[in-house]
């Protein structure tokens, strides 16, 4: 028989740990502040450790409280998933994934017919940004490090090539005059270092100002700007396959650089054994990058 404290006490603690206020917790749960205090006290007595540091008009979590909160978050998510599957049997075949917009549009979308052909029982929904209304089964993320508390694996590093419009090739031969026309991508509030890295590889770091030019928040915006003749860019080549094939964009140098950023597959701990997640991630790993 399991030895566990009451679910009510755990729920009260979970709410109080997020609110860091017994008063706000009582309002949120529609109970008295005294009831909240009693539940927390009973839970602390059961565990034999304090969960909160009680300051004047302020609460802080102890190390034990922080540890319990993280564990409860996973446990409550598992319980929610289990209840949802029982209430809606079709829910177990609904797969919600989070994918960066350019990767979803320019790489993943064109491969989905193969996934749907092999896994007709799975209803796939792709989101481009997090939302509190959806519990995601897995995520494909742009970054340069693994994600903590996840099964996190690198799918592929970016492979950057320098491109422009065909009619701008002659200008590209004198890139030192085009610093103001460099196009950049912003990630986490900063310009990605692709121009710095490419200019260094090309031996042009002392001739071209890599800090100049225009920055955009998405790769699709950069590609649109390129096709409109706004300048020059160093771009992940898998994202412009069609443009290169149709010669809408052309390479102005054969020099390529890899990384340091790439695309990672992140699976939350509580989702790793679910069949629909296994099917999708196994399929994803088999794709050519």
TrEMBL record:
GO terms for molecular function: DNA-binding transcription factor activity; sequence-specific DNA binding. Keywords: DNA-binding, Transcription, Transcription regulation. The keyword Transcription regulation applies. This is LysR family transcriptional regulator. It comes from Marinomonas ushuaiensis DSM 15871. InterPro entries: LysR-type_TF_proteobact-type, LysR_HTH_N, LysR_subst-bd, WH-like_DNA-bd_sf, WH_DNA-bd_sf. It comes from the Bacteria. Residues 5-62 form the HTH lysR-type domain. One of its GO terms (biological process) is DNA-templated transcription. Belongs to the LysR transcriptional regulatory family. Coiled coil: none annotated. PROSITE patterns: HTH_LYSR. Gene3D superfamilies: Periplasmic binding protein-like II, Winged helix-like DNA-binding domain superfamily/Winged helix DNA-binding domain.
